[in-house]
Amino acid sequence: MTNTLRRGFTLLEVMVVTVILAMVIMVASEALDRGSRLSERLSIENDLVNKTNQTLNDMAMELRSVNADPGDATNPSELVVGPTSGSPVAGTLYNSAGSIRPA
Predict the structure, then answer these.
(1) What is the pLDDT of residue 68?
(2) Average pLDDT for residues 29-57, to the nearest whole number?
(3) 1 inside domain
């Protein structure tokens, strides 16, 4: 009767497995946390890029809608910059190529 059959794990085996499992869970949770923070940062950057693109598109559309002379719509690619209030200087005409010529 001294040969009893014992089944199961020793306390030491259970503790070793628990420590290993805890380390695996810590590594996995750290990876998930980093991924979550990266995803949030990329989402914010993507929103910023989209807003910037929309603003630039709006500005380009506004610039395209300006005519060289309100009475003459033959060259819509030119932008007239007039004198400031009180300035005797005539307006300057900027075309789409970036060259400047007097109005």
Answers:
(1) 44
(2) 96
(3) no
